[in-house]
Amino acid sequence: MQKGLSVSDSDGSTFAPLVVLELAPNTKEEAVEWLLKRIRDKQQDGGAELLVEKLSPEDQSTEKDNPNVYMVGASMRRLLFGAEDVGLFKEFNDGTMRSFTCANRHNFKEFQGDGDSFLSMAECQYIIKHELDTLRAKGEAHVPGYPKMKLYPGKSVIRRIQSKGILVQIFPLHENEELKRLSFSWYKQFKLSFQPLDDIRHYFGEGLALYFAFLEYFTFALIPMAIIGIPYYLFDWEDYDKYTVFAGFNLVWCTVILELWKRLSASLAYRWGTLSRKKAFEEPRPGFHGILGFNPVTGREEPLYPNFKRQLRIYLVSVPFVLLCLYLSLYVMMIYFEMEGWVLMIHDEEPTFWTGVLLFIPSVIYAVVIEIMNLIYRYAAEYLTNWENHRLESTFQNHLVLKVLVFNFFNCFASLFYIAFVMQDMGLLRQSLATLLITSQILNQIMEAFLPYWLQRRRNKKAHRRVIKTLADKELPLSDQVKLEADMSTYLGTFDDYLELFLLFGYVSLFSCVYPLAAVLVVLNNVTEMYSDALKMCKVFKRPFSEPAADVGVWQLAFEAMSVIAVVTNCALIGMSPQVKSYFPESDTQLIMWVVAGEHLLLAVKFILTFVIPDIPKNIQIKLSRLEFESLEALKKRVSTASLAFNDTLKILVESSVFFTPDT
Amino acid sequence: MQKGLSVSDSDGSTFAPLVVLELAPNTKEEAVEWLLKRIRDKQQDGGAELLVEKLSPEDQSTEKDNPNVYMVGASMRRLLFGAEDVGLFKEFNDGTMRSFTCANRHNFKEFQGDGDSFLSMAECQYIIKHELDTLRAKGEAHVPGYPKMKLYPGKSVIRRIQSKGILVQIFPLHENEELKRLSFSWYKQFKLSFQPLDDIRHYFGEGLALYFAFLEYFTFALIPMAIIGIPYYLFDWEDYDKYTVFAGFNLVWCTVILELWKRLSASLAYRWGTLSRKKAFEEPRPGFHGILGFNPVTGREEPLYPNFKRQLRIYLVSVPFVLLCLYLSLYVMMIYFEMEGWVLMIHDEEPTFWTGVLLFIPSVIYAVVIEIMNLIYRYAAEYLTNWENHRLESTFQNHLVLKVLVFNFFNCFASLFYIAFVMQDMGLLRQSLATLLITSQILNQIMEAFLPYWLQRRRNKKAHRRVIKTLADKELPLSDQVKLEADMSTYLGTFDDYLELFLLFGYVSLFSCVYPLAAVLVVLNNVTEMYSDALKMCKVFKRPFSEPAADVGVWQLAFEAMSVIAVVTNCALIGMSPQVKSYFPESDTQLIMWVVAGEHLLLAVKFILTFVIPDIPKNIQIKLSRLEFESLEALKKRVSTASLAFNDTLKILVESSVFFTPDT
After folding, report:
1. Would you kindly state where each structural domain of chain B is located, as residue ranges?
2. Which of A19, A6, A175, A8 is nearest to B663 (CA)?
3. Do A643 and B81 make contact, defined as CB atoms within 8 angstroms?
4. Which of these, A127, A435, B332, B550, has the minimum number of CB atoms within 10 Å of its CB?
5. Mean predicted confidence (pLDDT) in A597-609
6. Of B81, B280, B625, which is closest to A297 when you measure between CB atoms?
7. Which residues of chain B have a CB within 8 Å of the CB of A595?
8. What beta strand segments (E) does A119-222 contain?
9. Closest residue in chain A to residue B9, using alpha carbons only
10. Are residues A420 and A511 in contact, defined by beta-carbon separation less than 8 angstroms?
């Protein structure tokens, strides 16, 4: 728990603030009071039984500050029950991970005394978020003071006031001490070391820790390729013939690393207790709307939206829109090739140094345009997916990921495929690949980390200057810290980070055989990415709520799809190499047949490998089976105890000869 | 429960016999007594708490009969607890399927009064089998009277005496009344009707019912293909050009029917309560041996066999053996082609009617040889897989299925692939396919149903003649029925039946475009197969123990693999058709490129389809989610009740100020 900061409760006792609720400044008094009462009410009365207090700024000089900021905390007892409620897994005395229960709390390894340090602050904040989210309307027909904001029994109060704009934002507080320690071990020491994954998980939760684990794993996986790539680059620069071996290596590599990652991620998820954690029933997402009806699963009243309407929106609007965008992207690509030809013509007419530089200009422009198109498309995709009105956040995310992936893949790789297989110009392919890779990396790093960091620093300086007068080197008082954090940007999740890795993976696995330096560049990029991502998580963004995650989700699938495409592409590149062609001097047909046969064989082997390599390492599999076995045995014991009781009842029945007269 | 038959218990009361245990005639008295005591002992004392009595034959005239035959039954109370123990799913009052619990028994739909007719006899027999299987040794060091038959705490008694030959066989009794009713609705009325799946499941269990459901589904799925095939056969007999459309149809068909089957099978499994049933912890299979150690999952003492030794046996012996067999099969194929060429030569020299007949002889001989090789290989595979010493029956089955499938696939289809793609002789392909299909069907039907049926009838007649003297048209007495059934052959599971369907599916999906009558032949075969399989289940074999199954298991995978191969094969056949070739008169390369591109697209669509079509129909998905949601809610309630209790404890702690002093 965070030391040093505390808020006075209404009855005088203090509590550590965990989560900040910022309400709109003009929220009506009665709505605020109703909300606070609901949050404070006992669970038996349908409340959340949390502690909540208004932030009392020590310095009320600045008029423009929002006065409606509330701090939420909870007693340790409440948090422990919350932990049971959300199904948290913790390490048991025997070293296995088990679902935490209060009754059993003393058998958990880190539970000492009153359990004060048992839950990390991130876990506490996650629990409070969950409890707030499941705070449901009871009898209220609408939010008090706002007759138009309808409520119905069972509707999540927080989600309603959030979607209606009363709740401006809800975010967990940073812990300055912890953050300093984490950032020191994470990015402040300039030596090569492993990412402090357990600390990241402790502070930011499993979802983000898995992203950094994947980033690190991916970087390490690239190193052999980078090492092989350097001599290729140095000695065979113009010798495309030799790339066959490299393509073959590529092909095996991208299959194997994904399989191994699955195992590593299962190990991490087990250690962090998310592997066998059961997902709670998902609430409708805040923006979801529809006609009030009864959910067939829960029986609760909630908005229903007919599936066929959603399908219509998807197939009649979203799909055509995506196709249109793909067409547009193709069009831009064609313009690029025209520019390319035009520049080449100029260079051929009168080759000077400047025309040599000019040769790279179209590629750079194209790379920039691609990035801009990706960015614009991203907003459009989000808008469309929102409009499709998916009930669950997870389906929303899946549809969004699919839309964005298809477009990004097409946008980034279409030109490369065109050059490789239609124009069959390996020199141009290498040049395009290099330009695309380098430009997009530079753009990304700037857009993603340094620009926000710079903006944040400017903002911080302004805020600091105000405060610095009173405090020399002491810590900021709570009210200032909250205001500082409230102004920070919000981290929108790991989507963009994974997307970037996905595209890099594509560049490397698809075409690195023609440009062996690609792997080296990606490794360099990843190393800086680690630092810049760490920086942005610690300094630029508000602390995000921790997201329990057992794997990288839909991205595993995306990467696997890419690796299948990589097998096909690499086989085709091998087939096109002069070295291979020289084996079949007479007939192209035979060559193609052999390449196709080889490719089919490889794909078959790939699928068999996916099937044969177990996704979960054996030692963890054993631990999981043991838990399952124990719960089955426990159930059996319960049955036989019940059996004894039932036995007695039966005896009475049999003695009064009502029950079971044997057949004759 | 079976009316009319009963056995007197030791204390004079009677019970309905369910399962027969046949011990070796020379079993020592003390071993028998110990076994009976363990079966009868109360569960608290580690017994199975079942009823067991020696079969007392009314007619002891025949000396050669085995006197050591025991009947096992159980009280209804015991069976209900057993049902809870094995995790039986039954229909609840609200129409959903739920795990049966005794405490909740009156809320189940079919539970009336004392629950006498609640469990079907097959379920009772399954429960008894399970209870016998989990009857474990306690302190015994060996089977009494047999110092060499070692026991250790936790070892399944039944499995030990079975693997040591004391227990000759264990089988459930038929119910004559039920069987008559079932066989009437199943195969005795010669009208086309659906299979009585629910009745089959009621009598034989889910595993077998799913097989018949699949057989029926597969037959219906073939009908459109058969209908399209007839005009093709009638009008385009020699026109190979037109088969492109048929191959395209094939390709879509085999993808779609497998996806739909998954949904149908999920519906059936839900209705039968096996879909969400949890698998119990699997015991080591009877033949498994190793050095005594502790199972890392259960902590129980049991034999352990190091995995690397098993892997060595698999990779150094089994794999080379399989490869050798494949080589042999290839060799036989080459001999067939030589014979074929030789016969063709004779026919070409002097074509007469007899040389025309001679043309078919090599194919027929080859078909017969293939069947014989399959049969021999089957035994070898079983022996080898046994020798590999797998711990679980399920892994044993998977390895066996894999071995047999690979060889059978190769053996049956290698010649067809050779003719199609190396010789490119469509006329010969058609002729070979027809001969293979028809010969193997005829052989199968004879071997599988009519031969055993005929043998069984001869045996029955002999047995009957002995009995018939005393009984005119009355039912057989129990002792005679038991002896009759003990002499019947044992049904070895659905393996061979599925294998046959798998090969038929292969003939149809791979090559039916060149021989459109294949689908018609397979439909005819399936219809007779339904009757002959029904006949053999009811008349030829001992009743098998019911096998709870939620799907067709590894066969789904096998069929899907075949459908992928079918896509590739059909694309290749399309590419080879003169009709398609005429579109690319100049270049073969272009043709191949287009075919390959189309094939890749189709495979991609196939995988996307597999992914997009939900495996479980939506209405069942909703029911399952509801159950899960309810159990989560119930858990939450339990937590908040506990919370109240915990609350009180905490109050005391807080009041004595031991617990939770807030941070400052």
Report:
1. 7-173, 193-305+389-563, 616-646
2. A6
3. yes
4. B332
5. 89
6. B625
7. none
8. 142-143, 146-150, 167-172
9. A662
10. yes
Looking at residue B560, its pLDDT comes to: 92
Is the pLDDT reported for residue B661 higher than 50?
Answer: no
CA distance B579 to chain A (A): 19
* Complex ipTM: 0.82
CA distance B661 to chain A (A): 10
Amino acid (one-letter) located at A633: E
Written as one string, the DSSP assignment of A559-625 is HHHHHHHHHHHHHHHHHHSHHHHTT-SS-HHHHHHHHHHHHHHHHHHHHHHHHHS-SS-HHHHHHHH
Report pLDDT digits (tens) over A203-244.
Answer: 999 999 999 999 999 999 999 888 888 877 777 655 656 677
Check A84 against B639: CB less than 8 A apart. yes
Q: Residue B2's pLDDT is what?
A: 42
At residue B190, the pLDDT reads 62
Given this model, what pLDDT does residue A664 score?
33
Long-range (24+ apart) CB contacts under 8 A made by A525-528 are A525/A441, A525/A445, A526/A215, A526/A218, A526/A219, A526/A222, A527/A219, A528/A445
pLDDT at B358 over 50: yes
User: How does pLDDT run across B455-496, given as a tens digit for each residue?
Assistant: 777 776 766 665 544 444 456 677 778 888 888 888 888 888
Our CA-based measurement puts residue A278 at a distance from the nearest CA of chain B, in whole angstroms, of 10
Mean pLDDT taken over chain A: 82
Q: Which of A282, A592, A621, A637 to mutate to test the interface with B (most CBs of B within 10 A)?
A: A592
Among the partner residues A76, A116, A662, nearest to B15 by beta-carbon distance: A662
Give the nearest partner residue to B663 out of A3, A589, A636, using CB atoms.
A3
What's phi and psi for B355, nearest 5 deg?
-70, -30
Residue B139 has pLDDT above 90, yes or no: no
Flag if B646 and A81 touch (Cβ within 8 Å): yes
Q: What is the mean pLDDT of residues A608-620?
A: 87
Rounded to a whole number of angstroms, the distance from the CA of B51 to the nearest CA of chain A is 13
Q: Of B509, B372, B518, B367, nearest to B440 (Cα)?
A: B367
Q: Find, in chain B, the residue whose alpha carbon is nearest to that of A115.
A: B660
Q: Which residues contact A210 (CB under 8 A, 6 or more apart)?
A: A265, A268, A269, A549, A551, A552
Residue A543 · residue A259 · CB < 8 Å: no
Contacts of A650 in chain B (CB under 8 A): 77
For residue A643, the chain B residues in CB contact (below 8 A) are: 43, 81, 102
CA distance to partner chain A, nearest, from residue B399 (Å): 12
| Least-confidence region, from A191-205, A274-288, B396-410 | A274-288
Instruction: Check if the beta carbon of residue A171 is closer than 8 Å to that of residue A19.
Output: yes
Specify whether the CB–CB gap between B98 and B89 falls below 8 A.
yes
**Which residues in B18-47 are b (16+ Cβ under 10 Å) and which e?**
bbbbbbeeebeeebbebbbebbbbebeeeb
Chain B contacts of A628, Cβ < 8 Å? 281
User: Which residues lie below 8 Å from residue B59, measured CB to CB, with a gap of 6+?
Assistant: B470, B479, B480
Q: Which of A6, A626, A643 sits opposite B297 (nearest CB)?
A: A626
Question: Is-contact B74 B43, C-beta < 8 A?
Answer: no
Share in percent of chain A as helix, strand, coil (round to 5): 65, 10, 30
Nearest to A639 among B3, B84, B600 (CB): B84
Chain B environment of A593 (Cβ under 8 Å): 592
Three-state secondary structure call for residue B475: coil
Average pLDDT over residues A425-431: 84
Average per-residue pLDDT in chain B? 82
Contact A660 B116 (CB under 8 A): yes
The band of B301, judged by pLDDT with boundaries at 50, 70 and 90, is confident
B6 and A664: CB-CB below 8 Å?
yes
Q: Which residue has the tokens 């469990």?
A: B119
